[in-house]
Write a structure and sequence with these properties.
heterodimer; A: alpha/beta; Rossmann fold; 2 domains; six-stranded mixed sheet; 9 helices; globular; B: mainly alpha; MetI-like fold; 12 helices; binds adenosine-5'-diphosphate; binds magnesium ion
């Protein structure tokens, strides 16, 4: 089943003005349910722009883009998206649990349902005992986990993540990667994940989409799928596996050219 | 509750109060010292100390001894009449009521304006200049107007219009401004990330306002409320004096009376100054207390 379908998509900012920027050119991409797409490319090549287009936060310039067979705006109204950014973006005046409840409040869930689900999400991201903590009392990694719990809380059809682990140290980062995969498998989420890190892209994804510098174009797509559908695969093993290094090399070559 | 209050009076707060008192004592000492110096500058010494010609001379009339000022509080205009301190106290209560109404009215107007201004560029460009212009008009220029309107036919109101209400309207003219300006800043303070997140949930403008913009602006609003509270007291006193104090019983009337009879007792002028100062400080302190309680409970930082 196609979750995202993009064809011949282009995005130009400030058309016709002095500061016109061609951010994306002729993008074709199809994402099916359950896929984990990693989006990688040099800074400024339009990765965030792509996510925001898919998320219906900005209008497309030309081409076609549909999410679950709908326009992004419609999909947004029907709450198809979970989003997470580089900074956790938690509301400082809300406790961890209340932050997770935010989208549920907007969607009209009852208080009891909200609390139940928020507690489940906190367990899922292993922050059960921090329900009443405010963001300022949590470490960067913990905040990011809350943000992921928030993004997943309403079972969105599509998870859009823009360098969500970019600000974390390497150890926390790997831990978060393991957790994210685990959660995504449990919830059968479809994910588009922007990252700067080649190993991260390879480790997490089923496919890595490599983009070229401005105007952003897809220069190649690398099939990774190191788990080959086996969600119980040992993460440490995968990180040490030869296939992992091979794919890392493959993506690196696609990114920098041979 | 008792525990909460105790938390508010933590070490830092106690130290602040002690520093405040220390400065008060220092001020009194400086006053007394200058008074002694200025009084010593009689004509003879003026010749001896050329520096004397740079400093104004002083006497008991324009700088009454501090003890005289303090004892004036306990005196009364007539034998057996109401003491000045008791007059000041009831005057302060009367003025505080006007200031409170002015604070509430001004804050509501300010908030409504802030929401309006924060909603669109057009509203901001159209209305903000008028908000600023309003503050360049001196308070006494608008008081006659408000008094006139107060004498107009206000029968449609379910309550009888009193002079003190006109005073509140005048004072609210000072209070809405900081609330409007800081409110706009607060409402526009959420990051684009927060706003995009809300958009991605398909949130309406109203829920973005209610769930993001308004809570984010709380620290900004309290900064404004602190300004508005003191402005409300000043506005009420000025309003009382300029609406004609005949009917009033507030601090403004007392200040006016003290000024009228200063020849007989210059000490009394200081009673008005001290009374107004304490009243303003009280209003300010009340907001600080509410600010601490609320921002503690929401986990937000107090803006300096
Ligand atoms: N709102 C905008 N207005 C104008 N130009 C923009 C806007 N957003 C992004 N751009 C431009 O589009 C290009 C791609 O940006 P972005 O998608 O943020 O890159 P990436 O996330 O890959 O680093 C950049 O040149 C950026 O300056
Ligand atoms: Mg980016």
């Amino acid at each position: 089943m196609e979750v995202v379908s993009i064809s011949n998509l282009s995005k130009i900012f400030n058309t016709g003005k002095d500061n016109e920027v061609e951010a994306l050119r002729e993008i074709d991409l199809t994402v099916t349910k359950g896929e984990f797409i990693a989006l990688i490319g040099p800074s400024g090549c339009g990765k965030s722009t792509m996510l925001r287009l898919i998320g219906g936060l900005i209008p497309i310039t030309s081409g076609e883009l549909s999410v679950n067979g709908k326009t992004p705006t419609k999909a947004r109204e029907e709450r198809d998206y979970g989003m997470a950014f580089q900074s956790a973006g938690l509301l400082e005046w809300r406790t961890a649990r209340k932050n997770i409840e935010l989208p549920l409040e907007l969607m009209g869930w009852s208080k009891a349902e909200r609390i139940k689900r928020a507690n489940e999400m906190l367990e899922l991201v292993q922050l059960g005992e921090f329900a009443r903590s405010r963001p300022a009392e949590l470490s960067g990694g913990m905040q990011q986990r809350v943000a992921i719990g928030r993004a997943l809380s309403f079972n969105p059809a599509l998870l859009l993540m823009d360098e969500p682990f970019g600000a974390l140290d390497e150890m926390t980062r790997e831990h978060m990667q393991d957790q994210l995969l685990d959660i995504c498998h449990k919830t059968e989420s479809t994910v588009i994940f922007v990252t700067h890190s080649i190993p991260e892209a390879v480790f997490l994804s089923t496919r890595v989409v490599v983009m070229s510098p401005r105007p952003g174009q897809i220069s190649s797509i690398v099939e990774t799928n190191l788990r080959a559908g086996d969600n119980t695969a040992d993460n440490t093993k995968i990180r040490n596996d030869e296939r992992f290094y091979k794919k890392v090399t493959e993506v690196r070559e696609a990114l920098y050219g041979k | 509750m008792g525990k909460k209050l105790f938390l508010l009076l933590n070490k830092a707060a106690v130290r602040r109060i002690l520093i405040f008192i220390a400065f008060l004592v220092l001020l009194a000492l400086a006053y007394t010292a200058y008074k002694a110096f200025g009084q010593a500058l009689d004509d003879r010494q003026r010749d001896w100390w050329f520096i004397g010609s740079f400093f104004p001379r002083t006497d008991d009339r324009n700088m009454p001894p501090i003890l005289d000022i303090l004892s004036e509080f306990g005196k009364s205009p007539r034998i057996g009449g109401e003491t000045y301190i008791s007059q000041l106290f009831s005057g302060a209560l009367f003025t505080l009521r006007e200031a409170f109404v002015a604070f509430v009215v001004g804050s509501i107007v300010g908030l409504v304006l802030a929401v309006l201004l924060a909603q669109s560029k057009l509203a901001e460009r159209g209305v903000m200049p008028w908000v600023i212009v309003s503050q360049t008009i001196p308070l006494i220029a608008i008081t006659p107007l408000v008094v006139l309107w107060g004498q107009a036919n206000l029968d449609f109101l379910p309550w009888e219009w009193k002079t003190w209400m006109s005073v509140s309207v005048i004072a609210s003219y000072l209070t809405f401004f900081p609330v409007a300006v800081n409110g706009v800043r607060g409402l526009l303070s959420p990051s684009s990330e927060h706003l995009e997140l809300m958009q991605s949930y398909g949130a309406s403008r109203v829920s973005i306002l209610w769930k993001i913009r308004f809570p984010a602006s709380l620290p900004f609003l309290f900064t404004a409320f602190k300004l508005a509270a003191t402005a409300a007291v000043v506005g009420a006193i000025v309003g009382e004096i300029s609406t004609g104090v005949s009917g009033g019983q507030g601090l403004g009337k007392l200040i006016f009376e003290f000024a009228r009879t200063y020849a007989a007792a210059p000490e009394r002028l200081y009673l008005g100054v001290i009374g107004a100062g304490i009243t303003g400080l009280f209003a300010f302190g009340l907001i600080v207390l509410v600010e601490k309680t609320i921002l503690n409970s929401t986990g937000q930082q107090i803006r300096e």
